[in-house]
């Protein structure tokens, strides 16, 4: 049974005295520019890639790949050369990929890199090739496999089972509708064999599909579970180890479609419940009885919905109306900003409706991020402080995400947290062990650590808070990347071109925080990548790599 996780911030880590971020004229401690010999390899959307999912994927692709095991970052240029930047102008050529050079004109996606361990790296060229690089003391050995065109989201080497797990992502289409497809490839790694073609071999494959975008995939160190953040629940589509079971489950689902007893949606302040009324009762007056912790909806002697709510309601503010064959009930939350993970305690008969943004509108908002052209009439965005009254209009609520922990073996969702519009994802940082995620909670940015576990006992821990950053991030409508070092000392909001905004973590109970603005000049190219390495912010354009020292 899926365990619902309620992400409530630790009140001890919340600064209720904070007022705003104030512009600080302090200059950064050091800035280095490295001109690249060859431009970064960047793929543009094709004419057939016309969906919101594809526009979004290309718009926010980060061409800098951070290695969590040694604090370096990697990138790929047009000649298929893979470079590693260690900092302080130390830029080393690691490898030249023939799979990238030979298929450069046939790429469907941008190339991507993932780090399975300290010495095992995976490169996907975006055109149907997956390449493993294994670093030994004597040099690098490569292994190439044919796969579907995709990008890599994560990689993990499981030492105990001598297994390498690769998570790749692509946009697929069925019956005229596009969706996100996730494929997990499980390779056996035998470093002791003398036969080169047996060192890495594909063992089995699992795939899932998601209606909507996938924000993040993380494979746990044990190789038994993965975390997926997406706008809808994942659905297992294929498992080469359980073909008969998948087929049986599929036919069962086709013949026994579950019809929800009710539907519900929510925003930060209210919940709307939609209940189907039997046709013969359409003209009767409905009975709606709401208390602070329960809801009863009935018509005549038929109870349509009844149960205890997981959180408190303002019962006196309840309203309802009968529209055609549906009763629409508006419930008011006692705690504004708290996103509910279920309507009734333990009830599975309802269907949650995500508050999705129209695809056309999103595609329009992302269009400037997918273009090589700079906006001629764009005005510089001022460095403003935190002011909730000014930023309310900028605080656009997007679609709601779901955090799911998946058991590979039995295809179950062991844990789930619904990240509502008030819990928008601000940034995600993979570490050598574990992963941190920054979620918006009301005004603040709360940083959570996703812990590792070999069983069903799994949780997230609130470890840091950036006061006021929730509203600040919402105001940055031209934001492309949001990055932060593992110690949480600062957050950088990086725009499509020219600007990056730095926010230093305020002292405990401080009222004012420092904000700085970095200007790369009017002639700078679009920003293609951004990462943080210890005290440095690294920025990548098509032909320049910037290293900015933020603190000493």
UniProtKB/TrEMBL annotation:
Keyword Zinc part of the UniProt annotation: no
GO terms for cellular component: cytoplasm; nucleus
One Pfam family from the record: CS
UniProt cross-references to InterPro entries, sorted A to Z: CS_dom, HSP20-like_chaperone, NUDCD1
Keywords: Cytoplasm, Nucleus
Domain CS: 257-344
Subcellular location: Cytoplasm; Nucleus
Major subcellular location class: cytoplasm
Organism of derivation: Ceratosolen solmsi marchali
Name the record gives this protein: NudC domain-containing protein 1
């Amino acid at each position: 049974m899926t365990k619902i996780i309620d992400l409530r911030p630790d009140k001890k880590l919340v600064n209720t005295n904070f007022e705003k971020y104030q512009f600080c004229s302090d200059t950064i401690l050091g800035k280095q520019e490295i001109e690249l010999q060859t431009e970064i390899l960047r793929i543009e959307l094709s004419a057939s890639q016309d969906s919101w999912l594809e526009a979004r994927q290309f718009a926010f692709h980060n061409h800098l790949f951070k290695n969590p095991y040694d604090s370096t970052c990697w990138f790929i240029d047009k000649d298929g050369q893979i470079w590693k930047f260690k900092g302080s102008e130390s830029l080393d050529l690691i490898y030249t990929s023939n799979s990238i050079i030979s298929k450069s004109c046939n790429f469907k996606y941008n190339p991507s890199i993932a780090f399975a361990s300290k010495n095992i790296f995976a490169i996907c060229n975006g055109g149907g090739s997956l390449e493993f690089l294994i670093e030994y003391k004597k040099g690098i050995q490569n292994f190439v496999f044919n796969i579907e065109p995709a990008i890599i989201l994560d990689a993990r080497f499981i030492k105990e089972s001598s297994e390498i797990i690769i998570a790749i992502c692509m946009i697929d289409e069925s019956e005229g509708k596009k969706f996100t497809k996730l494929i997990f490839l499980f390779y056996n790694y035998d470093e002791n064999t003398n036969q080169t073609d047996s060192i890495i071999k594909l063992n089995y494959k699992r795939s899932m599909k998601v209606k909507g975008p996938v924000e993040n995939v993380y494979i746990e160190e044990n190789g038994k579970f993965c975390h997926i953040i997406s706008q809808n629940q994942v659905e297992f589509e294929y498992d080469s180890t359980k073909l008969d079971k998948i087929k049986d489950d599929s036919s069962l689902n086709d013949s026994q479609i579950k019809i929800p007893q009710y539907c519900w949606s929510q925003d930060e302040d209210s919940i709307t419940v939609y209940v189907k009324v039997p046709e013969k009762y359409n003209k009767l007056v409905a009975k709606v009885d709401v208390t602070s912790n329960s809801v009863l909806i009935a018509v005549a002697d038929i109870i349509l919905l009844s149960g205890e709510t997981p959180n408190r309601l303002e019962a006196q503010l309840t309203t309802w109306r009968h529209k055609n064959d549906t009763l629409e009930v508006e419930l008011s939350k006692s705690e504004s900003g708290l996103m509910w993970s279920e309507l009734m305690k333990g009830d599975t008969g309802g269907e949650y409706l995500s508050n999705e943004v129209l695809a056309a509108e999103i595609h329009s908002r992302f269009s400037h991020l997918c273009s090589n052209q700079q906006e001629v009439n764009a005005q510089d965005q001022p460095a403003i402080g935190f002011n909730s009254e000014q930023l309310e209009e900028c605080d656009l609520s997007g679609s709601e995400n779901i955090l799911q922990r998946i058991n590979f073996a039995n295809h179950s969702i062991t844990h789930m947290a619904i990240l509502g519009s008030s819990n928008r994802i601000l940034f995600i940082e993979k570490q050598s062990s574990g992963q941190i995620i920054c979620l918006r909670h009301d005004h603040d940015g709360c940083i959570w650590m996703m812990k590792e576990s070999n069983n069903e006992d799994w949780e997230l821990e609130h470890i840091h808070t950036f006061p006021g950053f929730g509203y600040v991030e919402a105001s940055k409508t031209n934001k492309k990347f949001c990055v932060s070092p593992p110690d949480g000392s600062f957050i950088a909001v990086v725009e499509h071109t020219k600007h990056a905004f730095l926010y230093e973590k305020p002292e405990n109970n401080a009222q004012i925080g420092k904000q700085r603005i970095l200007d790369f000049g009017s002639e700078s190219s679009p920003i293609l990548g951004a990462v943080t390495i210890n005290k440095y912010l690294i920025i990548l354009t098509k032909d320049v790599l910037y290293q900015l020292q933020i603190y000493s």
